[in-house]
Amino acid sequence: MRPIIIYYSYGGNTKRIAEDIHEKKGYDITEIKPVVPYTSDYQKLVDLEESKMSQEELVEIEPINIDLSNYDTIILGTPVWWYTMTPPIRTFLKKYDLSGKKIVPFATNGGWLGTTFDDIKKYTPNSEVEKPISIKFNENTLVTNTEEINKWTNEIEL
Ligand SMILES: Cc1cc2nc3c(=O)[nH]c(=O)nc-3n(C[C@H](O)[C@H](O)[C@H](O)COP(=O)(O)O)c2cc1C
């Protein structure tokens, strides 16, 4: 099995978890980046995304410079935005063929996960979505027990 960590992070929480897994397990890691960066005004972003929440919005993302055929497992990290995955991750799932791969998602959030994991499944009908974990933050402070996260990290390969 060869996993890769693929994530998007606006404010750093998802990046922090992704990099922790990378350091612990040594898996390759790649960040999804929108071509046009989001506003740095947090409240503006929250309001803007609320207005688009029911549209299953897509955004242009930078091409990823990796050959996905080298990996059979994707550890997929997204923040939760308005009860679902972020547009950069939705775009990634739509743009790349992940058929036959295992997807292990983690979603950082403030306590309202919504339909994030079901929506990821919906966008990857030919993949196996397994072992999803919700990781809670209070702003930039990790709330979910690190032991729970470590246990999950160790189980990815089982
Ligand atoms: C536009 C926007 C919408 C959000 N919507 C939710 C939400 O629906 N549920 C929730 O629990 N947290 C929500 N949050 C909080 C983020 O999910 C949380 O802070 C996450 O850890 C941020 O990850 P990041 O630092 O990697 O960007 C939202 C944040 C933003 C910016």
Helix content: 25-40%
pLDDT below 50 for ≥5 consecutive residues: which ranges? none
Number of helices: 5
Give the strand content: 15-25%
CATH topology: Rossmann fold
Helix/strand-derived category reads alpha/beta
Calculate the terminal CA-CA distance, rounded to whole Å.
10 Å
Main sheet properties = 7 strands, mixed
Number of strands: 7
What CATH architecture label applies?
3-Layer(aba) Sandwich
Mean pLDDT: 97
Question: What is the 3D form?
Answer: globular
Q: CATH homologous superfamily - what is it?
A: Flavodoxin domain
What would you report as the Rg, rounded to the nearest angstrom? 15 Å
Give an account of the 3D structure.
This protein has helices at about 15-25, 40-50, 85-95, 115-125, 145-155; strands spanning about 5, 30, 75-80, 100-110, 130, 135-140, 140. With about 160 residues, it is α/β, with parallel strands linked by helices. It has one domain: Flavodoxin domain (Rossmann fold), CATH 3.40.50.360. Strands 1, 2, 3, 4, 5, 6 and 7 form a seven-stranded mixed sheet that branches. Strand 3 (about 75-80), helix 3 and strand 4 (about 100-110) form a beta-alpha-beta unit. It is globular, with a radius of gyration of 15 Å. The model has no long low-confidence stretch (mean pLDDT about 95). The site of flavin mononucleotide has 22 residues, from helix 1, helix 2 and strand 4. Flavin mononucleotide binds near residues 79 and 112.
